[in-house]
Amino acid sequence: MKKDETGKVRIAAKINEMIASGRFDSQVCTHISEIQDVIPSADGCEKCLELGDSWVSLRLCLTCGHVGCCDDSKNKHASRHHHETQHPMIVSYELGEDWLWCYVDDVSITP
Questions:
Q1: CATH code (residue 59)
Q2: Which of 12, 93, 95, 109 could tie 58 with a disulfide, CB 3.0–4.6 Å?
Q3: CB of 55 within 8 A of CB of 45?
Q4: Across the chain, what does the average pLDDT equal?
């Protein structure tokens, strides 16, 4: 996931364009309209960095920009963030990966 010159990850417009053009069925996920352009909270898992722990892969919350570690990581901070905040959607924050996940609808979305 690339950041623009302001530090934001801009994904909302891309998803809305895909919906408008019919390339994406917004009925697959009822939370797609909640996606925001966000500024990542850290360059690594925010909580693991505080704890001095490591992670496997990173996830970016598409509501607030929280960067957390994946469920294959020891601490599962991305999932914990969802359970604490009810923010529904994340995107992989790994280079070369282009997918979203909705915790609520339990669905993976590839733009």
A1: 3.30.40.10
A2: 93
A3: yes
A4: 90
